[in-house]
Amino acid sequence: xxxxxxxxxxxxxxxxxxxxxxxxxxxxxxxxxxxxxxxxxxxxxxxxxxxxxxxxxxxxxxxxxxxxxxxxxxxxxxxxxxxxxxxxxxxxxxxxxxxxxxxxxxxxxxxxxxxxxxxxxxxxxxxxxxxxxxxxxxxxxxxxxxxxxxxxxxxxxxxxxxxxxxxxxxxxxxxxxxxxxxxxxxxxxxxxxxxxxxxxxxxxxxxxxxxxxxxxxxxxxxxxxxxxxxxxxxxxxxxxxxxxxxxxxxxxxxxxxxxxxxxxxxxxxxxxxxxxxxxxxxxxxxxxxxxxxxxxxxxxxxxxxxxxxxxxxxxxxxxxxxxxxxxxxxxxxxxxxxxxxxxxxxxxxxxxxxxxxxxxxxxxxxxxxxxxxxxxxxxxxxxxxxxxxxxxxxxxxxxxxxxxxxxxxxxxxxxxxxxxxxxxxxxxxxxxxxxxxxxxxxxxxxxxxxxxxxxxxxxxxxxxxxxxxxxxxxxxxxxxxxxxxxxxxxxxxxxxxxxxxxxxxxxxxxxxxxxxxxxxxx
Length: 522
Hints:
Layout: H1 4-23, E1 26-30, E2 36-41, E3 44-47, E4 53-57, E5 60-64, E6 70-73, E7 78-83, E8 86-91, E9 94-99, E10 104-110, E11 112-116, E12 119-124, E13 127-132, E14 137-143, E15 146-149, E16 155-159, E17 162-164, E18 177-179, E19 186-190, E20 193-197, E21 203-209, E22 211-214, E23 219-224, E24 227-232, E25 239-244, E26 247-251, E27 254-259, E28 262-268, E29 271-275, E30 279-286, E31 289-294, E32 298-303, E33 306-313, E34 317-318, E35 326-330, E36 333-337, E37 343-349, E38 351-352, E39 359-363, E40 368-372, E41 377-383, E42 385-386, E43 394-398, E44 401-405, E45 419-422, E46 428-432, E47 435-439, E48 445-451, E49 453-458, E50 461-466, E51 469-473, E52 479-485, E53 487-491, E54 496-500
Antiparallel strand pairs: 1-2, 1-54, 3-4, 4-5, 5-6, 7-8, 8-9, 9-10, 11-12, 12-13, 13-14, 15-16, 16-17, 18-19, 19-20, 20-21, 22-23, 23-24, 24-25, 26-27, 27-28, 28-29, 30-31, 31-32, 32-33, 34-35, 35-36, 36-37, 38-39, 39-40, 40-41, 42-43, 43-44, 45-46, 46-47, 47-48, 49-50, 50-51, 51-52, 53-54
């Protein structure tokens, strides 16, 4: 007979064992060829980078060594975010930060943390703290209206309507405005005017310009004392790359200069892109790509390096081209011109695409067909959508299904798919009725439509999911790791693959006295 005290101990032990199993499961560690190397006990493992592996079990959250041994206690419940080299960890009281080398930088008590390579900016309750990796110190910045780390590592704070640069030589200097952009310099404003500040917090153009705005990169467009300025940022002293007393207009990325009221120049960030007499209008149609219209009904396509299509009469519009031909329009129809502006494919289509591997799509109604480089029709319109050719194959859609086409317009798969995705390895990931398969570069079947998910790591290793279970196979469909795991994580830097086994509960039987009923507990 088991005494009540012993029964309580057994039940407690069973409950403890069961609880541990809930949070700790076996991961089997394989080499890429499928040979079992070792095992580890974790509920979850995440490979965040080549050097950072995180594991969680009943003992907590930890950074792991390459052989999956805990090396740093992360003191939290989950990885909130990984922003190399910083690991942000979430705990019951808030977010903290660890360096990927293992050092703790901020305790797990912040509402928000911003990161830069050697800085952390933490916020809680309207107050901010700055951690500097160089000296390992955390400095209280106090209560602020706002604070941010810029993409180049500058700290901008805002308080009582003013902006400050706490890491500069003059941290108490107030600014009316400090504006970050995609370049390496801040746009600043004081009572005296606009200026430009480098990453050290020093003015490289004094705040004396009446108007100033960022354009692209390290360039700025301004106006000061009746002259227009194009300015290039510099670490020591910014240069006025171009100045003019003639009007320069700016609408988005389009800058034009007018002389005596007449359009004369197309401007780029630091000077003149085109200086020509007789221009009537300029239209920006892409990044550094312009339709320039002249008197006598001439139109040309201007790029960053000059004319892509020489100004020519009898053209209404020109689009970005490929393979030396450019879609162009005339009388509401579309064709193709070459760089000299001559019609290579006469405008007889409602719309065309661009050439890819010397084939373009076209349409006259709502469906698309294929044409050759000389305008010869390869296939009559029948497709709702056709994507560009690559390696001799295009993806086309009709009736809600996707097909693969060769350069003759022939369908390579008669049975259509719900989805087709061209992978960087050249394969096609296809899906139909919720099942995925894989086609090779020619459109032939490699893996049948039998999987819930296929993740191509490389041709010799693909993680697949079937009937709710996960495993790994190669491109020939040969099994590397059996498809009977809950999860698979590849750690290629460690030349290993981690496979999480399905949880199998353990049942412990406890016998009752013979005189009573027998019960079971788990």
